[in-house]
Amino acid sequence: MKFLKLFFILSLLAVFTGFTTFDVWGPTGHRATGKIAENHLSKRAKRKIDELLQGESLAFVSTHADQIKSDKKYNEFYSWHYVNMPLDGDYETAEKNPQGDLVTGINYCVKVLKDEKSSKEDKRFYLKMLVHLVGDLHQPMHIGQKEDKGGNTIQVQWFKKGTNLHRVWDENMIEEWNMSYLELASNAKDLSKEQIKAIQKGSVLDWVKDTHQITQKVYGSVEVGEDLRYRYSYEYFPVVREQLQKGGLRLAKILNEIFC
User: Fold this and answer.
1) What is the phi/psi pair of residue 18, to 5°?
2) φ/ψ of residue 228, rounded to 5
3) Matching InterPro entries, A to Z (predicted)?
């Protein structure tokens, strides 16, 4: 009875503070992506970003878009964290959220950062948003189905503890490996210049399609109520690592183009 009462209270808090079921890469994942991006910035871009962020790193600001969710004045940015589309669909033909989505959010951030008339304050804010959103774009369940809220309502277990498919990909697998964001970033796969260029090739829409291909596989990887354990981590944590690295490399490409 006490548990049910506590659950009800926490649910109400989630509603009234603006926290809803769409989670994101956990802090560790976002910071790893930010750190990987920093490692691939041009000297000019790094200098300009350092000036804009007043010394704060991309890893440090990568969680800002989540932190502001507790402030209602930022509610307009909530839908920027994800894109909903059918598994057999694509972004172009999918029903669009009138409040915006990951793609429109990223594009708006880039627009503000490129605009010479934008204030430093605006550029600082939207740079922080951009770092986070590019990370979100590479979490497969952020390009999930509307009816299950990107896997949030698909209940499973992680080592006999209740969770959902979205959270498994957000945090559970990363937490199981117990690596810091610096360890994740420093252990990213060694890639040749040609491989990096291949990953960075294309547009935001191309990257959405790339991630959505993984989304399709993730939905078929579990059954409701299934207890996911070492085998699932063995098969899919390499995908998590690859997506964190792709996010960092593509974020670096965007930033190098903006601050060239």
Assistant:
1) 95, -5
2) -85, 135
3) PLipase_C/P1_nuclease_dom_sf (IPR008947), S1/P1nuclease (IPR003154)
Q: Quote the CA–CA distance of 13 and 114 in Å, as a whole number.
A: 38
243: in domain: yes
Query: Does residue 114 fall inside a structural domain?
Result: yes
> Can you give the residue range of the structural domain that contains 179?
27-258
Q: Is residue 12 one of the residues assigned to a domain?
A: no
* Residues shown for the chain: 260
Q: Is residue 236 part of a domain?
A: yes
The answer to whether the Cα torsion of 37, 39, 44, 49 is positive or negative is positive
Q: How high is the mean pLDDT in each 10-residue block of the chain (260 residues)?
A: 39 36 73 98 98 96 95 95 96 96 98 97 98 98 96 97 96 94 96 98 98 98 97 97 98 97
Contact 150, 142 (CB under 8 A): yes
Q: What is the pTM of this model?
A: 0.90
